[in-house]
Specification:
globular; signal; 3 helices; 8 strands; 8-stranded mixed barrel; Sortase_F; Sortase; Sortase_dom-sf; Sortase, Chain: A; Class F sortase
């Protein structure tokens, strides 16, 4: 699937401002942020530049060993108001893949959304997303059995008002990944920032 455009891009950008704040009554700490990395998302390990794209297949699992994430993946579409759906606030929190973005391993940015906190249930699946570092591994298991492995290229904490929609959802000429949650200071209305992880395909195997 090609990168996002038109209505899907606008909806995705709106969702990024709203996603993953955990809803009323979130009980975990007030920050999922950290010092944002300064490496531009186009700077990736040399090996990642030559990895061919993989066949289109829906992601079913996401693993991030460095921060202990191993989660089933649910499919997210558009809500009735045109915004992107987010995973439900639930005890068994899961990450979600935005189905109007490329599947992992296809050219373009494949977008995953997750909560930082899940109300009274505590920490969300992306609670420690801001702790990732450049070069660390993200593994997406696809429905066809392929594992598409990505290397982190950038981790940023940005004010929601300054969300970099073009960099997150815009066209790129290779397979990349975007993971998005909330972060920064928590107020009564939710978190003030977004945490965004950028990653590039480094390998793929059955």
């Amino acid at each position: 699937m090609s990168p996002l455009s038109g209505r899907a891009l606008a909806a995705a950008a709106l969702a990024a401002l709203l996603v993953a704040c955990g809803g009323p009554g979130a009980t975990s700490g007030s920050s999922a942020g950290g010092t944002p990395a300064r490496t531009p998302s186009s700077s990736v390990p040399p090996a990642a530049k030559s990895v061919p794209a993989v066949g289109r297949s829906t992601p079913v699992r996401l693993r991030i060993p460095a921060i202990g994430v191993d989660t089933p993946v649910m499919k997210l579409g558009l809500a009735a108001d045109g915004s992107v759906q987010v995973p439900p606030i639930a005890a068994h929190d899961r990450a979600g893949w935005y189905e109007h973005s490329p599947t992992p391993g296809r050219r373009g940015p494949s977008v995953f959304l997750g909560h930082v906190t899940v109300g009274a249930y505590g920490d969300g699946v992306f609670r420690h997303l801001a702790e990732l570092h450049r070069g660390e591994k993200i593994v997406t298991r696809l429905e066809n059995g392929t594992a598409a492995v990505f290397a982190v290229t950038d981790v940023r904490t940005v004010a929601k008002a300054d969300f970099p929609s073009d960099e997150v959802y815009g066209n790129v000429n290779r397979p990349e990944l975007r993971l998005i949650t909330c972060g920064g200071k928590r107020t009564g209305a939710g978190y003030l920032d977004n945490v965004i992880v950028f990653a590039a395909l480094s390998s793929a195997s059955p």
